[in-house]
Design a protein that fits this description.
The complex is a heterodimer of chains A (329) and B (297).
Chain A lengths: L2 E14 L2 E14 L3 E5 L6 H9 L7 E10 L2 E2 L5 H7 L4 E4 L13 H12 L4 H14 L5 H4 L9 H13 L5 E5 L7 H17 L3 E6 L2 H7 L2 E6 L2 E7 H6 L4 H8 L39 H5 L4 E4 L2 E3 L11 E3 L1
Parallel strand pairs in A: 3-8, 3-9, 6-7, 7-8
Antiparallel strand pairs in A: 1-2, 1-4, 4-5, 9-10, 10-12, 11-12, 11-13
Chain B lengths: L1 H29 L1 H23 L32 H37 L1 H15 L3 H12 L3 H28 L2 H8 L4 H37 L11 H8 L8 H28 L6
The chains are: A alpha/beta (329), B mainly alpha (297).
């Protein structure tokens, strides 16, 4: 499998007046063509910032990619001009946002909004565009698509709006779809429908997807591979089966342990003590050391490198050579 | 089968357009305040176009044998003034000045203010700081005082009154529109637009501007009334439309000397201003509700 997207050693800085924070530190991951990559982590781990960086959507004045590269389809996204980015966005890379209620412009009909990316990226006649829109709306499971295109966003329910957002992202048949918590704002039954829909579309087309979520259940259901992020860096990367069967990083173990189980309902739910440190609170050691039950002296003084065990990578001292981990990078 | 649905789709959109126009009038009839506002504005426009033909007398014709007649005497429905001119005719002919000033000023001030507001709100940075400080300075001045100063410089006459009112009035548009743009540009649908590869200029004019129509209409309809009243005020103070040409403001100004003996000289032009302001506000209010897609149905 070829790599559609490669993020190498990415570092991003935010500037706010004089203070500089670094929410993303040395992030590495790849998305292969045709696969669904899950990115999971608590709030404030840098999941969304990473996805915005891939789209080139970071605010240009207050943020900066200080180091590293984002290679999409052999093109360097971080070096692109605004104009080149416009050609890629919505055309080769699309994004689905978290809030379907506010992601559509309230003064335009659905049809008018769906026209936009087609006008921008494809040269089709008006009738062809309309046909394509109706086709995609039907593909995402919207009944009576011919009528929906003349309706305004507020006339649709949340689930319908998210379907419209998905069709907006699919219109130009992108190679990569970034879904930033696509189902967080929806209720559970609709969530399942939307996820099922996304999975089906990915399987039908040869699209790749980056699914950002904090919900491990969604990850287990949807993804082929998983990247676990913590405090702005990737702490573990593995295939989905491997990650759930044999988590290596204590943070991942904690996340899995904190899921409610169907069998035991005796005690309070497990939670990892403490909070994600803010970017400016990070010291020299491992970012997770202050919350980790296995932390040793070494964890507090030196940040762990990435060790890999077969296809499984994790950033933790517990996996060093003594247990057979192979130092990578 | 596809061709059939295609034809239906195209037909649907044209039918929708004509439907929209009939719907407009249907809704207008269903809402009494909007309807009243519409009728007032419609009549005003008719009067200001055909004023000279409608007026029962020549508004400039003086007849000293018939001066200061009270209303409903000798064929003068609203009486005559100190020079024996028919008050009703003067109000009818004077309507044109008010309507032109109200509409043209709102267009000029609104366009300029909206452009400034959009630039300020969308691009932010130093340009925002500079423009908004200018607005701040001007807002700290009383509106009427500023208009008076400017019209003292530019001189009298319809064009100069409009210029001075617009100079006094654009700041409100700039400030309100800027704050609206600030709110809209951070909305997720704008980010979603950028994420679909839409150009910046396109986002500004096709996505942000249509969302501004509601505040522009509300503000514009309120401001029309303000400008009509302001014109009356500066005419009253002697800087506006010069006598003997009839305008509601200078009718008030001339009539004030006779306020105790001949009440009709200031009452009727005053009522005309009141009704105009009311009509514009009622219609603007209704238009706002109708144009906002979330208010429909």
């Amino acid at each position: 499998m070829t790599n559609l997207l490669e993020v190498n050693n990415l570092n991003i800085c935010f500037r706010n007046g004089k203070s500089i924070t670094q929410p993303i530190r040395n992030v590495n991951f790849t998305v292969r063509s045709g696969e669904i990559l899950g990115i999971v982590g608590e709030s404030g781990c840098g999941k969304s910032v990473t996805s915005l960086a891939v789209m080139g959507l970071l605010p240009p004045k207050s943020s900066e990619i200080t180091k590293g590269e984002i290679i999409f389809n052999e093109q360097h996204i971080e070096k692109m001009s605004e104009k080149q980015l416009q050609n890629i966005r919505g055309n080769e890379v699309s994004m689905i946002f978290q809030e379907p209620m506010t992601s559509l412009n309230p003064v335009f009909t659905i049809g008018q909004q769906l026209m936009e990316p087609l006008k921008q990226h494809k040269s089709l006649t008006k009738v062809q565009r309309k046909e394509r829109i109706i086709e995609v709306l039907k593909q995402v499971g919207i009944p009576r698509a011919e009528q929906i295109i003349d309706e305004y966003p507020h006339q649709l329910s949340g689930g319908m709006r998210q379907r419209v957002m998905i069709s907006l992202a699919l219109l130009c048949e992108p190679k990569l779809l970034i879904a930033d918590e696509p189902t967080t704002a929806l209720d559970v039954t609709i969530q399942a429908q939307i996820l099922e829909l996304l999975k089906r579309i990915i399987a039908e087309t040869n699209m790749s997807m980056m699914l950002i979520t904090h919900d491990l259940g969604v990850i287990a259901e949807m993804c082929h591979r998983v990247v676990v992020m913590y405090a702005g860096s990737v702490v573990e990367e593995a295939s989905v089966e491997e990650l759930f069967d044999n988590p290596l990083h204590p943070y991942t173990k904690g996340l899995l342990k904190s899921l409610p189980s169907q069998n035991e309902r005796k005690s309070a739910l497990y939670s990892i003590a403490g909070q994600v440190p803010r970017p400016n609170e990070l010291g020299q050691g491992c970012a997770f050391a202050n919350r980790c039950e296995f932390a040793t002296e070494r964890c507090l003084t030196a940040a762990p490198p990435v060790f890999s065990v077969a296809q499984h990578k994790a950033k933790c001292w517990l996996l060093d050579e003594t247990v057979g981990g192979v130092f990578s990078e | 089968m596809t061709t059939k649905s295609e034809v239906n789709v195209v037909k649907g959109s044209t039918r929708r357009k004509s439907l929209r126009i009939t719907n407009f009038f249907k809704k207008l009839l269903g809402n009494w305040s909007g309807f009243v506002g519409f009728v007032i504005i419609f009549l005003l426009i008719i009067i200001s176009i055909f004023g000279k033909q409608i007026a029962p007398y020549d508004p400039m014709y003086t007849d000293f044998t018939k001066k200061l007649l009270p209303p409903l005497t000798e064929g003068h429905l609203l009486g005559t003034d100190q020079l024996g001119r028919d008050v009703l005719s003067r109000i009818i002919v004077g309507a044109r000045v008010s309507v032109i000033i109200g509409l043209v000023t709102v267009l000029v001030a609104g366009t300029f203010g909206t452009i400034v507001g959009i630039i300020s709100g969308y691009f932010r940075g130093w340009i925002d700081v500079v423009l908004m400080r200018i607005v701040d300075v001007q807002l700290s001045f009383p509106f009427i005082l500023l208009v008076l100063v400017v019209s003292a410089i530019t001189g009298t006459g319809l064009r100069n009154i409009i210029i001075s009112l617009a100079i006094g009035g654009w700041v409100i548009f700039a400030r309100v529109i800027r704050s609206e743009v600030l709110a809209i540009r951070e909305k997720e649908f704008i980010t979603a637009c950028v994420a679909t590869g839409v150009k910046r200029s396109h986002i500004l004019f096709k996505h942000i501007l249509p969302n501004l129509i509601t505040p522009i209409i509300i503000l514009g309809s309120l401001q029309i009334a303000t400008y009509i009243i302001a014109e009356a005020s500066i005419s009253f103070l002697g800087f506006g439309v010069q006598p003997p040409a009839p305008a509601w403001g200078n009718m008030l100004s001339e009539g004030k000397d006779y306020i105790f003996s001949s009440w009709w000289l200031i009452t009727f032009p005053g009522i005309a201003i009141l009704i105009t302001a009311l009509g514009v506000n009622l219609f603007g209010d209704w238009l706002r509700d109708t144009l906002d897609p979330e208010f429909v149905e």
